[in-house]
Design brief:
With 426 residues, this protein is of the alpha+beta class. It contains eleven helices and 16 strands.
Length: 426
């Protein structure tokens, strides 16, 4: 689709009251205007389609900005209601769903996952080593996103595939590169397909489809309009397509529904546990920046938010604690980006020139990148602060930052909002 003009629409900018602020002083207004100008410069410099930025301080949303377009073809601007396919931030929600079932005693984090799946999952070269949920949750299972994963994802809806066809050596979509040379537990390697195994187990032990389970046990209790199923969204006009720029044209890569509901991903023949990848537990959550903030509040407050308990505090502590730290040889860090990981939670270490968001605090959360989108949901429980950043596309290829291992546009946003956040915290 070709755009005749590129409209950079700046809307929805607002200061939301902090717990200890009753209004905006002249100084605050100047600071807000300066932040707007600086973020607009970031938006223009990186040639983005649209952008949402949300800041948390004192345990509350204190500022939210919306820039550009959610939908190019229909000229719909980004707003605080815009919903994005937020990519790998989805993993944090999937991990929380599994940990709920662990609290109920329905799964053992260290048991052989084969007992839940109903089929025998093993690394072909290490048949005596079990693969556990613990190893799946922290990317140490020895499973990789091999070439079979892409083929399986392409065919799984039309062919109504069973996920075991991807992981069993005699499966129709199995490829040898689905497993690493390392044994289970020995090496961190970030993967997506493994979250389909986790979601399949969620379905097996709960006897509910993954999207339904998350809606009933996480999103509805927290008042989130987020979902792993596009058909759950109350207004598809609020869903932003994801874009890449090619041959002087913005091209929608995903979610270009133009306000009309797509066909269901499964029909009545689908059996719980058949294929946990079907609703994208690894990357297909649709959510607004505000709803991601709600999830962050729940984690920061020990599993409870506004009277709704989603997880016990001890479970949140386990989920967010260090289950892997890079020691120089025990993982693929993506050029010093992943240096510590919990259960579906990326832990920031603030290593020099590496994984830095705000230099005075070690945050946690998750990033996402897919189909032109780039996203971040990070927070710090000690200071009750955080940031959500999302863009649905850029004319430029995302490049690594000059001072960190985040992408340059992320680094630019973090650097611009940090002084503003510090003043709000004073």
């Amino acid at each position: 689709m070709k755009r005749q003009t590129i409209l950079l629409i700046l809307i929805g900018i607002q200061l939301l009251a902090c717990n200890n602020h009753q209004g905006e002083s002249d100084t605050q207004k100047l600071e807000i205007n300066l932040l707007l100008e600086e973020l607009k410069e970031v938006f223009d410099k990186n040639q983005l389609m649209g952008m949402s930025v949300l800041l948390i301080a004192h345990g509350d949303i204190v500022w939210e900005g919306s820039f550009g377009l959610a939908d190019s073809s229909r000229q719909i601007p980004i707003s605080e209601k815009t919903i994005y396919r937020v990519a790998s931030i989805s993993k944090s929600i999937t991990a929380a769903a599994l940990m709920q079932l662990w609290e109920e005693g329905k799964v053992d984090l260290d048991a052989d996952v084969s007992q839940y799946l109903g089929w025998f999952l093993r690394h072909p070269n290490f048949p005596n080593e079990t693969i556990s949920l613990r190893l799946l949750l922290n990317h140490r299972s020895s499973i990789r996103d091999g070439s079979g994963y892409g083929n399986f994802s392409r065919d799984m809806i039309d062919q109504k595939l069973d996920i075991k066809e991807l992981f069993l050596p005699d499966g129709a979509y199995y490829t040898e590169d689905m497993f690493a040379k390392e044994a289970p537990g020995d090496f961190f390697s970030y993967t997506n397909c493994t979250w389909g195994i986790i979601a399949s187990i969620i379905e097996k032990v709960s006897d509910k489809r993954f999207d339904v389970y998350c809606r009933q046990h996480i999103f509805e209790p927290l008042g989130m309009q987020a979902s792993f199923n596009v058909l759950d969204l109350p207004n598809l006009d609020e869903l932003a397509p994801l874009y890449r720029f090619k041959d002087s044209i913005w091209i929608a890569q995903a979610d270009d529904y133009k306000g009309k509901a797509p066909d269901p991903r499964v029909d009545d023949s689908y059996k719980s546990g058949q294929n946990g990848l079907i609703f994208g537990p690894q990357g297909s959550l649709r959510s607004s920046a505000r709803d991601l903030a709600t999830f962050a509040f729940m984690i920061m407050n020990g599993g409870e938010w506004q009277g709704k308990r989603i997880l016990e505090k001890e479970t949140v502590d386990l989920m967010t604690s260090d289950h892997w730290t890079f020691d120089g040889v025990n993982g693929d860090t993506w050029s010093d980006f992943f240096l510590s990981y919990g259960f579906g939670i990326h832990r920031i270490t603030n290593k020099d020139s590496s994984d830095i968001i705000f230099p005075d605090r070690k945050m946690m959360g998750h990033p996402g990148i897919a189909y032109g989108l780039l996203s971040d949901m990070y927070f710090d429980s000690n200071s009750q602060s955080g940031i959500v950043f999302i863009t649905n596309g850029s004319k430029k290829s995302f490049e690594y930052g000059k001072n960190t291992t985040f992408y340059q546009v992320e680094e630019d946003v973090f650097e611009k909002v940090f002084p503003f956040l510090k003043k709000l915290e004073e």
